[in-house]
Amino acid sequence: MVSMKNHLAAILDSNKFTGLNYQDWLRNLNLVLASEKLLYAIEKTAPKFAPADISPEELVTLKQWWDDEVKTRCYVMASMSNEMCQAPC
Question: Which ranges of the chain would DSSP assign to H, the alpha helix?
Fold first, then answer.
């Protein structure tokens, strides 16, 4: 899971969420997401659809937000133990 440009992400590989270590896992996840400038993607909700009157510049920003949400979900899922990923919500 460690990207070539973010060695800090290695802490998520070695400290996966197991259900018992939530506070430590969340702190580590927030550190990694902040270093990748992705923290906003879990703090705010992006619109599901682009408004009809959106400008081209705003559309670029919205598409980046959607891409960042996907990256963030991948970080979250990759930082969880297999058991936690398969557990029902």
Answer: 10-14, 22-35, 40-43, 56-78, 82-86
